[in-house]
Specification:
By secondary structure, this protein is an alpha+beta fold. The chain is built from 9 helices and 14 strands. It has one domain. The chain starts with 7 loop residues before the first strand and ends in a 5-residue tail after the last helix. The mean pLDDT is 90.
Length: 308
C-alpha cells in the first residue's frame, strides 16, 4: 500500500529544509564495505568514500512550495516502500540459484522460487519508488515541463523541485499499479568475485502517465543482486519469480548499462568499474528501445519458461 496517497499539507507551518533520499538509506546500506563506506565515482574519475547515507539525496526534492494551504510534501508517499523493500531484499538475497553455465540455454539456468502476493506487491511498490525518484527520471520530468513552458514563450529555467514533485505525485501511483501485479520478476545474482554497481538511473520503459500492461525495468538492489521486472505481451503466469546466476561477463554488461543511465555519479562497494564513454560525456542517455540483445534473449527465455 502506498505510504500516503495525497500530498501531506503543513497546516500553515513553514516548509523546513530537508534532505530527500532518492537512494533510500536502508537500501544503500547494503553497498557499504567492511568499513561501513561506499565509494562514489564521478564522470571525471574522481572518487569519494563515505557512509552510504551521505549519498543519494537532494535537498527539498519532494517539497511543494506554493502559496497558501497548497504547500506540502510528497516525501511520505515513499514511507511504506522505504520500510518494506530492505526487508524483502534481505530475504530474496538468500534464495538459491543454479550455478552459471554459459554453455547451457538460459532456460536451464533459471530456478523458480516462491513469493507470496503481499511480498510481490511490496516489491513492485519498492521498485516504483526507486524509478520515480532517481535523478534520471527527475531529468526526464524537467525536460517535459521545460518543453511545455517554452511553448508559452517562457525562458529556459533551472529544474523546479515543486513542478517535479507535483509530476512525481501524479505518476507514482501509475507506476506502482503497473509493477504490483502480473508480469515476471527475475533475480539476477552476481557471479562470485563480481559486483553490480549502482547509478543515477535505470533501464526503464515506465513513465507513469498511465498503468502500463507491457514494461521492463532493470534495477540493481545490492552489489550481489539486481532485479529484472517485465511484462511481455505473452508469457506463462507461473512461476512469477525465478533466479539466475550471472557470469562475470554478464555482470559487467549490466554495469555498462548502469553507466548509460547515469550522468554525474556511480557507486560501488569494493570493485571499481572501468568508466565507459557513455558515462564520461556527462549526459543522461537511454538505450534504443530500452533493450539490448542479451536482455531480449533473457526476457524471451523467461517468458516461455514453464517448469514441469
Amino acid at each position: 500500500m502506498i505510504g500516503t496517497s495525497r500530498i501531506t499539507g503543513l497546516k500553515g507551518k513553514p516548509l523546513k529544509s530537508e534532505l530527500h533520499h532518492w537512494w533510500p538509506r536502508k537500501l544503500s546500506a547494503f553497498w557499504n564495505d567492511k568499513d561501513g563506506k561506499v565509494t562514489r565515482l564521478s564522470w571525471e574519475g574522481k572518487s569519494l568514500r563515505a557512509p552510504s547515507a551521505q549519498f543519494g539525496a537532494i535537498t527539498n526534492a519532494h517539497h511543494i512550495k506554493l502559496q497558501g494551504p497548497w504547500a506540502g510534501t510528497i516525501e511520505p508517499l515513499f514511507g511504506d516502500a522505504d520500510t518494506h523493500l530492505p526487508q524483502i531484499v534481505r530475504r530474496l538475497a538468500l534464495l538459491p540459484c543454479v550455478a552459471a553455465n554459459l554453455s547451457c540455454p538460459i532456460e536451464d539456468r533459471l530456478l523458480p522460487v516462491g513469493i507470496d502476493r503481499v511480498e510481490r506487491e511490496r516489491l513492485g511498490e519498492g521498485l516504483a519508488s526507486l524509478l520515480i525518484r532517481c535523478p534520471s527520471h527527475r531529468h526526464l520530468i524537467h525536460g517535459v515541463t521545460e518543453n511545455i513552458w517554452g511553448r508559452f514563450g517562457g525562458d529556459e529555467r533551472k529544474p523546479d523541485n515543486t513542478l517535479t514533485a507535483l509530476n512525481m505525485h501524479q505518476q507514482y501511483r501509475q507506476m506502482v499499479d503497473s509493477l504490483k501485479f502480473g508480469g515476471k520478476v527475475v533475480l539476477l545474482m552476481a557471479a562470485d568475485g563480481t559486483e553490480f554497481i549502482f547509478g543515477e538511473g535505470y533501464l526503464n520503459t515506465l513513465r507513469g502517465s498511465t498503468v502500463e500492461l507491457q514494461y521492463r525495468c532493470l534495477v540493481p538492489l545490492t552489489p550481489n543482486m539486481a532485479v529484472l521486472a517485465f511484462a511481455p505481451s505473452r508469457y506463462f503466469i507461473q512461476p512469477p519469480l525465478c533466479t539466475i546466476r550471472l557470469s562475470q561477463m554478464e555482470v559487467e554488461l549490466i554495469n555498462v548499462v548502469t553507466q548509460v543511465y547515469s550522468r554525474d555519479y556511480i557507486f560501488y562497494r569494493e570493485r571499481e568499474p572501468q568508466l565507459t564513454e557513455h558515462f564520461r560525456v556527462r549526459e543522461f542517455r537511454r538505450l534504443q528501445f530500452e533493450n539490448f540483445p542479451w536482455l531480449d534473449e533473457l526476457m524471451q527465455s523467461v517468458s516461455r519458461f514453464s517448469p514441469r
